[in-house]
């Protein structure tokens, strides 16, 4: 496993937590673009977690209150694919779980209804749909 | 406050009942899909701040109520049930119609009796419409 202080490399994967209503069980593909829309407090970028810093993907659920953990799916995004989309991944340590990072270009300040933004959300959903490692447990 | 009349230009991009947009996978009929949509809005209406455990904002009741009324109006005008309805992290409610060719039609209600509609094809530019609350005179 890598330390949080180790540089993020192109061969890494990051996990995105997908809220239950953004995961359409039975639909192909299940993850919808809104899963990547930043919240109002995500001024630094949307949250992801470096898989290189944890033993297994479900470890990142430690960032969520226990009563909410079953409500999330987990999908992986390749750092190389994110770079191809013109996005970056920056380390942003939090105490709850190692490996927290953000995608700074996908932040509330950049959020708009413009076509480029909407297509970016769609591209992120497409990437996530390639590597779903956990469905919501509800 | 109330919604304005839904004119033909605004209704044009919506799929009609019996159309080919995707229905929720757990609904066998359009009636069932519309019922699920309305039931979900009622659930979202009860959401308080931090409903997702990651800082999402509560859905204001007047936003939820106006979204509910708009959904009923669309149903009454023979619009096909949406593929999904979801709460937004910023307190909005969004209806999406999705087609197998990746075209999406998104109806966002972020303020009471105000909505924006975006038709985003798989390729090419989007088309947009907006409706605002009617002014009582």
Task: Please characterize this protein's 3D structure.
- The complex is a heterodimer of chains A (138) and B (137).
- Chain A is an alpha+beta fold and 138 residues long.
- Chain A has helices at residues 79-84, 115-130; strands at residues 13-19, 46-50, 72-78, 90-91, 100-103, 132-134.
- Chain A has a 6-stranded antiparallel beta sheet with strand order 4-5-2-1-3-6.
- The longest helix of chain A is centred in the last third of the chain and has 16 residues, at 115-130.
- The termini of chain A are far apart.
- The relative contact order of chain A is 0.28.
- Chain B contains 3 helices and 5 strands, in the order H-H-H-E-E-E-E-E.
- Chain B is globular and about 35 Å long.
- Chains A and B meet through helix 2 of A and strand 1 and strand 4 of B.
Distance between the termini of chain A: 31 Å
Shape of chain B: globular
Give the low-confidence spans of chain B.
Answer: none
Could you tell me the mean pLDDT of chain A?
94
Strand content of chain A: 15-25%
Let me know the average pLDDT of chain B. 92
Portion in beta strands of chain B: 15-25%
Low-confidence stretches of chain A: none
Helix and strand content put the structural class of chain A at alpha+beta
Main β-sheet of chain B, in a few words? Answer: 5 strands, antiparallel
Q: Compute the gyration radius of chain B: what is it?
A: 15 Å
In spatial order, strands of the major sheet of chain A run 4-5-2-1-3-6
Which structural class do you get from the secondary structure elements of chain B? alpha+beta
Q: Specify the oligomeric state.
A: heterodimer
Largest interface (CB < 8 Å): A-B, 27 and 28 residues
What is the overall number of helices of chain A?
2
The shape of chain A, in one word, is globular
């Amino acid at each position: 496993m890598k330390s949080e202080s180790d540089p993020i490399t192109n061969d890494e994967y990051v996990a995105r937590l997908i809220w239950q209503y953004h995961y359409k069980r039975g639909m192909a593909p299940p993850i919808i673009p809104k899963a990547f829309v930043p919240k109002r407090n995500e001024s630094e970028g949307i949250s992801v977690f470096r898989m290189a810093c944890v033993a297994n993907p479900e470890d990142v659920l430690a960032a969520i209150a226990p009563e909410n953990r079953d409500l999330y799916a987990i999908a992986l995004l390749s750092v190389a694919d994110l770079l191809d989309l013109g996005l970056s991944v920056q380390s942003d340590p939090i105490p709850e779980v190692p490996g927290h990072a953000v995608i700074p270009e996908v932040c509330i300040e950049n959020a708009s209804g413009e076509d480029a933004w909407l297509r970016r959300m769609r591209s992120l959903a497409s990437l996530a749909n390639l590597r779903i490692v956990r469905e919501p447990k509800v | 406050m109330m919604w304005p009349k839904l004119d033909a230009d605004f209704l044009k991009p919506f799929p009609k009942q019996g159309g080919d947009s995707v229905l929720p996978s757990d609904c066998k009929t359009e009636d069932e899909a519309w019922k699920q949509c309305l039931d979900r809005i009622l659930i979202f209406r009860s959401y308080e701040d931090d409903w997702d455990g990651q800082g999402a904002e509560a859905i204001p009741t007047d936003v939820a109520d106006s979204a509910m009324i708009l959904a009923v109006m669309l149903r009454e005008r023979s619009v096909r049930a949406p593929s999904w309805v979801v709460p937004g992290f910023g307190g909005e409610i969004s209806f999406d119609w999705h087609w197998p060719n990746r075209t999406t039609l998104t109806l966002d209600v972020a303020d009471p009796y105000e909505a924006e509609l975006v038709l985003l094809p798989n390729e090419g530019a989007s088309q947009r419409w907006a409706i605002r609350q009617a002014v009582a005179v």
